[in-house]
Design goal:
It is an enzyme of class 3 (hydrolase). Its EC number is 3.5.1.2. Pfam families: Glutaminase. It catalyses: L-glutamine + H2O = L-glutamate + NH4(+). It comes from Metabacillus idriensis. This protein has about 300 residues and is an alpha+beta fold. It folds into two domains: about 160 residues, DD-peptidase/beta-lactamase superfamily (Beta-lactamase); about 130 residues, Probable Glutaminase Ybgj, Chain: A, domain 2. About 45% of the residues lie in helices and about 10% in strands. It contains 13 helices and nine strands. The protein has a six-stranded mixed sheet. Helix 2 packs antiparallel against helix 11, helix 6 packs parallel to helix 9 and helix 8 crosses helix 9.
């Protein structure tokens, strides 16, 4: 569905866009490095099935780490809490999202949470399916249901770029394989994870996914309970404690909503029982979050008192 253009929202985007020059594109994944540093877009999807947007809304982007929330929901539906959290913890970490340190130093050597790369790889490994193709097909079908958009697909250029440069993720996998956290072929898992992260969409699609979580797992358009209420609650809690990498505490204080970012510059935000927010701004701060996206969320939260705390 088309979004209404909001002059008020456009003004906030214009203010936030000024800080894009202070960030950096994630060029360690070569295909992501082709993004335009000055891009910024936002869509807000209300649970009453209305939406508004502003900025470079026609630009598409890949989910990257935002996909971790969707995979976690799918795997919890596949296996239940006890199975998943036997292999992945629930605690936030102050380390970078791709760090191997806690795997080496934590007592039971399982990943601390599903929002860091080690935990996300372990969760992706749990997707039900006879092979990586079936697992990806199930993840894509789930994403299409959440967005109510059958055109959602993988950007194979970015997936290939990630696969070819995923040396640290391979290291995490082999470390976890040693301790029985993951099983199966590591290259198959890296291929699946790269494609999961490279699922492509627009800000409106992302805002719509946020609206599903805002309604405790019920889709605002179809009114279908796609995600069980308690699983939606778990996912939103992880977004508050771990969703913005090692800036999650500061973000909770300054913005105060469940959110998940990705190094493509995407951010999915949730205002429970009101709306979902989809943002794209590929210029990143030093912690890997969209620098203008966070600025925009600060402005929105202050202006409309969005904090859940």
């Amino acid at each position: 569905m088309p979004c209404q253009t909001s002059e008020e929202l456009a003004e906030l985007v214009s203010i936030a866009r000024e800080v894009t020059k202070d960030g950096k594109i994630a060029d360690y994944i070569p295909a992501l490095g082709e993004a335009d540093q000055g891009d910024l877009s936002v869509a807000i999807y209300h649970v009453e099935n209305t939406c508004m947007s502003a900025g470079d809304i026609e630009k598409s982007f890949t989910l990257q780490s935002i996909s971790k929330v969707l995979t976690l929901a799918l795997v919890l539906m596949d296996h239940g809490e006890s199975y998943v959290f036997d292999k992945v913890g629930m605690e936030p970490t102050g380390d970078p999202f791709n760090s191997i340190v806690k795997l080496e130093t934590h007592e039971n050597q399982r990943p601390l949470n599903p929002m860091i790369n080690a935990g996300a790889l372990a969760v992706t490994n749990m997707i039900k399916g006879s092979d990586k193709e079936e697992k990806l097909s199930r993840f894509l079908a789930f994403t299409k249901e959440l967005t109510f958009n059958q055109d959602i697909k993988v950007c194979h250029e970015i997936a290939s770029s990630e696969f070819e440069n995923a040396w640290l993720n391979r290291s995490l996998c082999y470390f976890m394989k040693k301790d029985g956290i993951i099983d199966g072929d590591v290259e198959d898992l890296i291929d699946l994870y790269s494609k999961q992260c490279a699922v492509q969409m627009h800000s409106l699609d992302l805002a719509k996914i946020g609206a599903v979580f805002a309604l405790d797992g019920k889709h605002p358009q179809t009114e279908k309970q796609i995600i069980p209420k308690d699983i939606a609650r778990i996912c939103k809690t992880f977004m508050v404690t771990c969703g913005m990498y090692n800036a999650s505490g500061e973000f909770a204080i300054k913005v105060g909503i469940p959110a998940k970012s990705g190094v493509s510059g995407g951010i999915m935000g949730i205002v429970p029982y009101h709306f979902g927010i989809g943002i794209f701004g590929p210029s990143l701060d030093k912690k890997g979050n969209s620098i203008a996206g966070i600025k925009l969320l600060h402005l929105l939260s202050e202006k409309y008192e969005l904090s859940i705390f």
